[in-house]
C-alpha cells in the first residue's frame, strides 16, 4: 500500500525520513509529480528504475534546494550562471559536466559524464529538499512511457503499491516537464522543450540548437515513444472518426462525452497546463466507450506549443 501523505510539516518530515532511509517518495513540483530518491544512493536510484520499468540508459534529473547546491555537483559556465539567475527556481534543467568530487550516484546520470540539475519552484518540493538535506533524483512519477502525472491520484493510478508514499499537493501548476538545456558543449542545445520557451532562453544566452527526437538519449524525455496513452494517437486531425476520442484546441466546435478541449480560447499556456490531465481523462473515457484512438487538433508550433507538440509526437510514435 502506498501512503498518501498530507502536504504539511508532518507529511514533509515523514517523506524526508523515507528518502533518507533509501525509500521512494512521489512529490509535486511546479511541472509534474516526480518520483524521488536520494540521488547519492545507488540502490535507491535503482529502485526508481524498477518502480517505473524505466530503460536504464535514460538519465534522471537531480533536484536541489538552491543553485549553489546544484552547482556543487557540476561545473557551470557563464551561460549556466546567467540562466540560473533568471529561471531558478523554475522549470529549467541544465545538463552540465559532472564534477570529479560529486557524490551523485553514477546510475542517476546513466553513466554519462554529465548531470542534469534543476531547482524546482514548488514550495513543497523545496521544503522536502531542505528537510531531507540530500539531492533528490526524480523523473516523473509514472510507469515508463505512460502519461506524466499532474495530481497525486495520477501517481497512485500508476504506482499504487509500487512506492512507499506520495505527498498530495493538489494539481501541478505548469503541467509540462522542465525544459532541458545541454550546456556541456560549446553550443547550447535544447534536449527537451518544456515549461520555459526557447525564445525566453535565447534572450539570455543567444542561439540554441534544437535536438531531434531520434538523437541519442542523453537526457530525460528523449525516448521516441513516450507519454503514451493506451489508444493510438492521430495528430493534426480536423475531426475525430467514430472510433476516436477528441483532443481539441481553440474554438473547433467538436463536442461529446469523449471530447476535451485544451483551450477553447487558443491559449498555449492554458493548453500546456491541461495537457497530461486531458490525456489521462481521454484515455479513461475512450477505454470506457470502447474507442481505439485519440484524434488531436492542430496545435501551433511556437512558444509552449513546441513542448506540447513534442509530447504529442512522442505519444503518437509507434510502440
Task: Report a brief summary of the structure.
The protein has 319 residues and is α/β, with parallel strands linked by helices.
Attribute tags:
18% strand, 2 domains, eleven-stranded mixed beta sheet, 319 residues, DHBP synthase, 9 helices, 15 strands, alpha/beta, four-stranded parallel beta sheet
3D architecture notes:
This protein is 31% helix and 18% strand. With 319 residues, it is of the alpha/beta class. It has two domains: 208 residues, DHBP synthase, CATH 3.90.870; 85 residues, no CATH class. The strands form two sheets. The chain has an eleven-stranded mixed β-sheet, sandwiched between helices. Strand 9 and strand 10 form a beta hairpin. Helix 8 packs parallel to helix 9. The protein is globular and about 60 Å long. It starts with a strand and ends with a helix. The model has no long low-confidence stretch (mean pLDDT 92).
Task: Specify the structural class.
Answer: alpha/beta
Q: Gyration radius, to the nearest Å?
A: 19 Å
CATH-assigned homologous superfamily of the largest domain: DHBP synthase
Overall pLDDT level: 92
In CATH, the topology of the largest domain is named: DHBP synthase
With strands numbered from the N-terminus, the spatial order across the biggest sheet is 1-8-2-3-7-4-6-5-9-10-11
H and E order: EHEEHEHHEEHEHEEEHEEEEHEH
Count of helical regions: 9
Total count of domains: 2
Q: Which bin fits the share of residues in helices?
A: 25-40%
Number of strands: 15
How far is the N terminus from the C terminus?
30 Å
As residue ranges, the low-confidence spans are none
- Give the oligomeric state of the chains in this entry, treating copies of one chain as homo and distinct chains as hetero: single chain
Largest sheet: 11 strands, mixed
Query: CATH top level of the largest domain?
Result: Alpha Beta
Strand content: 15-25%
What's the architecture of the largest domain in CATH terms?
A: Alpha-Beta Complex
Amino acid at each position: 500500500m502506498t501512503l498518501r501523505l498530507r502536504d504539511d510539516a508532518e507529511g514533509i518530515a515523514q517523506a524526508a525520513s523515507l528518502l533518507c532511509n533509501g525509500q521512494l517518495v512521489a512529490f509535486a513540483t511546479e511541472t509534474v509529480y516526480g518520483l524521488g530518491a536520494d540521488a547519492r544512493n545507488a540502490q535507491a536510484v535503482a529502485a526508481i528504475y524498477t518502480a517505473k520499468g524505466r530503460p536504464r540508459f535514460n538519465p534522471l534529473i537531480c533536484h536541489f534546494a538552491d543553485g549553489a547546491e546544484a552547482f556543487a555537483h557540476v561545473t557551470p559556465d557563464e551561460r549556466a550562471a546567467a540562466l540560473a539567475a533568471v529561471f531558478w527556481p523554475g522549470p529549467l534543467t541544465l545538463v552540465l559536466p559532472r564534477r570529479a568530487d560529486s557524490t551523485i550516484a553514477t546510475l542517476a546520470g546513466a553513466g554519462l559524464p554529465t548531470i542534469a540539475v534543476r531547482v524546482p519552484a514548488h514550495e513543497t518540493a523545496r521544503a522536502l529538499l531542505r528537510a531531507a538535506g540530500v539531492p533528490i533524483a526524480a523523473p516523473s512519477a509514472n510507469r515508463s512511457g505512460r502519461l506524466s502525472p499532474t495530481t497525486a491520484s495520477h501517481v497512485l493510478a500508476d504506482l499504487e503499491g509500487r512506492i512507499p508514499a506520495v505527498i498530495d499537493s493538489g494539481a501541478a501548476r505548469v503541467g509540462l516537464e522542465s525544459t532541458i538545456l545541454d550546456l556541456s558543449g560549446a553550443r547550447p542545445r535544447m534536449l527537451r522543450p518544456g515549461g520555459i520557451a526557447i525564445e525566453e532562453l535565447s534572450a539570455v544566452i543567444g542561439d540554441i540548437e534544437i535536438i531531434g527526437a531520434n538523437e541519442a538519449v542523453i537526457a530525460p524525455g528523449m525516448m521516441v515513444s513516450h507519454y503514451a496513452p493506451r489508444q493510438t494517437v492521430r495528430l493534426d486531425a480536423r475531426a475525430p472518426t467514430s472510433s476516436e476520442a477528441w483532443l481539441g484546441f481553440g474554438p473547433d466546435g467538436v463536442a461529446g462525452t469523449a471530447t476535451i478541449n485544451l483551450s477553447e480560447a487558443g491559449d498555449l499556456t492554458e493548453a500546456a497546463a491541461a495537457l497530461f490531465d486531458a490525456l489521462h481523462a481521454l484515455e479513461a473515457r475512450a477505454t470506457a466507450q470502447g474507442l481505439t484512438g485519440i484524434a488531436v487538433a492542430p496545435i501551433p508550433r511556437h512558444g509552449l506549443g513546441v513542448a506540447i507538440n513534442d509530447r504529442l509526437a512522442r505519444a503518437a510514435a509507434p510502440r
